[in-house]
Design goal:
By secondary structure, this protein is of the alpha+beta class. It is about 30% helix and about 30% strand. It contains 4 helices and 12 strands. Strands 1, 2, 8, 9, 10, 11 and 12 form a 7-stranded antiparallel beta sheet that branches. A 5-stranded antiparallel beta sheet has the order 3-4-7-6-5. The protein starts with a helix and ends with a strand.
Amino acid sequence: MAEVSKDKKSNTFKYIIIFILFLAVGVVIGFYGTTRYFEQKEEEGNSSAPEIKEITEDSVYQDTIKELYSVVNSNTIFYSSEGLKIADLNNYSKLSLVLQYMDTKSMYEKEALNKNELGNCEYGFVLDPSGTANIPSLVCTVYKYKKADITSVSKKVYNTDIETNNNFVPEVGRSCVSVEDEYICGNTATPQSGALEIKFDIQKVMLDPNGTIEIYDKGYLADRRAGVDNPNDQYDNYYLHTSDSTNYYYELKSADNVTFKHTFKTDDNTNYYYVSTEVYNG
């Protein structure tokens, strides 16, 4: 009887050892299988992830590119060496930016205010420059912008909220007065003739399907503002690399021109809004 008991114990111990071995093998196989499954899923996810692609000449995106580029290519504020982030601008700067954009789209009403007994017009606007020396102007030309349009443009083009309650100065010699549901903007000093002209061309446009379009453009700024030309320096043209530069150059050298990257984002892959601009050194 003692021998039988010993045999049973021996067999029981063998079964326990075998069970433990099978359990260990199962754990190892299960761990390996699970790890490999997730690795394959990650590889599949990476392989199917949308890639950033160039859309510069893609006919599907030409209207979008044209519209987005019109946001930056009409305003020298986007061509500063310090770059620009819409999120960093104060409300007055946003208002100025929005109104200048609306000017490019003719989103205003033009009106002439009559001269008053003080020699100017209502709201302190100055008379228009006279057409001839012998016939002085008797009116002040003003531009009226609907506050509802300002709010709408600010949200659509820049994805930012904006306050429209206070008067502000969009540029030197010009002011905008808040009157009920609109802004009335006019000159408070004789406007300077000439302008800083943007001479940039698109180099490439990149699309990230996750919601970003980047427009890269390269070029220069031609300074046509009054008072810049010096008849004694024998130069006819004055060029700047960036709008905040004070160093002129007088011959165009493409290799020296600056490239900017303008970034736009979207929440629905359809409507894009401006985010930022920076000098691109890539």
